[in-house]
Amino acid sequence: xxxxxxxxxxxxxxxxxxxxxxxxxxxxxxxxxxxxxxxxxxxxxxxxxxx
Length: 51
Known about the structure:
- The chain is of the alpha+beta class.
- The protein has a domain at about 15-40.
- The protein has one helix and two strands.
- It has a two-stranded antiparallel sheet with strand order 1-2.
- InterPro entries: Imm52.
């Protein structure tokens, strides 16, 4: 896994060095695990409009 800052946009998280596919069970398992961790950390909440 690699984490990169994207200027003033936020953070890019790269999970695998190869193309991520839904047909690869390892990729699906990794995606679910990362989703759980991000959700637990409160990072998957919907964005609020700044109006």
